[in-house]
Task: structure prediction
Amino acid sequence: MNGFDFAQLALYFVLLLTLGYFLGKYMAFVYQKEAGSGFLPLRLMENLTYKCAGLNPHVDMTWIEYSRSLMGFSLVSFIFLYALQRMQNILPLNPEHLQAVSPDSAFNTTVSFISNTNWQGYSGEATLSYLSQMLGLTVQNFVSAAVGMAVLVALIRGIIRHQSDGIGNFWSDLVRSIIHILMPLSVILSLLLISQGTIQNFSPYIEYKPLEVHNAQEVSQKLAMGPVASQVSIKQLGTNGGGFFNVNSCHPYENPSPISNLCELLAILLIPVGLCFTFGFMVNNLKEGLTMLIAMSSIFFVFLILALWAEFCQNPTLSLASNMEGKETRFGIVNSVLWSVCTTAASNGSVNCMHDSLTPLGGLAPMVLMQLGEVIYGGVGSGLYGMLVFALVTVFVAGLMVGRTPEYLGKKVEAFEMKMSSMILLVPPFVVLIGTALAVSCDAGRSSVFNSGVHGFSEILYAFSSAGNNNGSAFAGLNANTPFYNYALGTAMFIARYWLALPVLAIAGSLAKKKQIPVSSGTIPTTGILFTSFLVCIVLIVGSLTFIPALALGPIVEHLQMIYGAK
Result:
């Protein structure tokens, strides 16, 4: 690495923290104001939405009512998106006359997008019509992200309220997240991307003739067109990640320039970082939000450094100074590695390089960031509520160590919260490891692996780590568009989203009912270096104890084989 590489990293993080602070303050303002208030044009749009949908945004819901609304909304979203894909061959805005999506692929894609995972087992430009991309996928990019933000806000209300049955109104939180936060940011980012050359049109695919013709099939080829910028902006901001094109943000029509690359990179982490500040403002103690942010960033930088070191080190089997395979020469190793770490830390899943071409340890870094539960920095909303669950576990363990009743922000942490927290922490590893074991044990799972041996195992482990933690990125050497993987990964994505969101809402309801306990000399501080370090250790211990055996069979062994192969 040279000085220019370090300058790029410094610029990125300075912009991220600066923009994140002001966005976090704005989001706290949005969620603390009454429904139907705010900037006039957005307020009118919000009130019109309530009126057209027949919703009363002022009803304070219990956690059960909140959960029922969330699941009902997700069910309607599932039915609509699944039907849209199955009938796209008879619907308009289908310039290439694409056929209906197969039942298994439609199921996988539907679960993927309503769960904010955006795993893609298909080629977007060859599978989905413009209408399916816009009315189906882009809409879900907005609403699935807003659902995660709504669950987080409900949990924060549970923390700051006392002796209350309500945790807010799901419909109000959903609509305000979309109209006041996601839509304005998406419009701004879309315009920036269009200015850099990202396409946004309804044109038919353009035929062209290559300059060099090697066989008869290459006489005429097509360039895919479409409304790309509008989908790219929300896929990044909502930590969705699903690309309009098969190669995602490696495609020059999605990511045409270094400036567009920087904008998209900032968008990946902007809302997750901003929500840490939002949390601090909403609990009226900015240090609490900074504690979450510092804990996340500490783990993030460890794996960023590991990935950079792995990709810049000489590959002993190839005698190369660095590994450029699968990376964009337009952006270089630093931007490719930074993207791969950001996208897996933030539950985004988009790519600007091929993760399958990373070195063994370079691929281990994004894999572990997913396996930690997508809490570094995690998806919009889901990352922070996952880290807050870890904070509850941390104060509980710390309380046991010193013989104190554990408390967090003035609320006692008792048996119910620990049962729900245990479910949240244990379900994703269970889904990942059981799914991986099933895939490597049956012919249907092994037949899709293009790479034999250790790397093939890593590809399967990566796929279930991605689906079981709602990320969406992949090692490209695995053909996941088969009935087995479409149904298996779809099931993993569904469990990873809703089996976690519902216990979080249960915790919110339980905390909201509790009395506020005044701070005393025996209260364990939940800010400062000691608590932050303890929180980081808890996150790493849970992840390492769960996944190190599986990682030892995959990327760790592959790294040792790479070294041994050079001797």
Summary: The beta strands are 206-208, 221-223, 407-408, 411-412. Residues 469 and 496 are 6 Å apart (CA to CA). The longest strand covers residues 206-208.
